[in-house]
């Protein structure tokens, strides 16, 4: 099954119209029609938006494999929109030197331990 076939199948499962899908993803309805004709697949820039709209993982969309055996949110990885608060945090973290990243991780671990101790008391 191709990526476009998985998209169309998932849209049908969700009873999602092309118009609704286009509004959620920014993909033109004519592009979706091309996918239905199996002439093209989505561009890589749209994968995250498509996954969010269809509530699927990028791995499932690209390969058809869902390691969790369902579309449950418990995964060993996260898909993060870079325009969100956590996305900006990750972007800033990635721009730091290794020693700075290590220091931040130390602060986070210490804060988490402190918070856990405080909750247990």
Commentary on this structure:
- With 121 residues, the protein is mainly alpha-helical.
- It folds into 2 domains: 3-63, 434 Repressor (Amino-terminal Domain) (Orthogonal Bundle), CATH 1.10.260; 85-120.
- Helices cover 61% and strands 0% of the residues.
- The protein has 7 helices and no strands.
- It has helices spanning 3-13, 18-25, 29-36, 47-54, 58-63, 85-94, 98-120.
- The longest helix is centred in the last third of the chain and has 23 residues, at 98-120.
- The mean pLDDT is 85.
Count of DSSP helices?
Answer: 7
- List the uncertain runs: none
CATH-level-4 superfamily name of the largest domain: lambda repressor-like DNA-binding domains
Alpha carbon gap, first and last residue: 54 Å
Notable traits:
121 residues; mainly alpha; 2 domains; 434 Repressor (Amino-terminal Domain); 61% helix; 0% strand; 7 helices; elongated
Task: Please summarize what this structure is.
The chain is mainly alpha-helical. 61% of the residues lie in helices and 0% in strands. The chain folds into two domains: 3-63, lambda repressor-like DNA-binding domains (434 Repressor (Amino-terminal Domain)); 85-120.
Describe the protein's topology.
Layout: H1 3-13, H2 18-25, H3 29-36, H4 47-54, H5 58-63, H6 85-94, H7 98-120
């Amino acid at each position: 099954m191709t990526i476009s076939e998985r998209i169309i199948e998932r849209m049908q499962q969700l009873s999602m119209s092309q118009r609704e899908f286009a509004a959620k993803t920014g993909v033109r309805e004519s592009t979706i029609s091309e996918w239905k004709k199996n002439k093209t697949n989505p561009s890589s820039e749209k994968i995250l938006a498509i996954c969010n709209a269809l509530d699927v993982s990028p791995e499932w969309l690209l390969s058809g494999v869902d390691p969790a055996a369902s579309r449950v949110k418990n995964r060993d990885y996260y898909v993060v929109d870079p325009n969100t608060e956590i996305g900006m945090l990750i972007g800033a973290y990635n721009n730091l030197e290794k020693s700075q990243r290590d220091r931040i991780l130390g602060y986070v671990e210490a804060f988490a331990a402190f918070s856990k101790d405080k909750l247990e008391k």
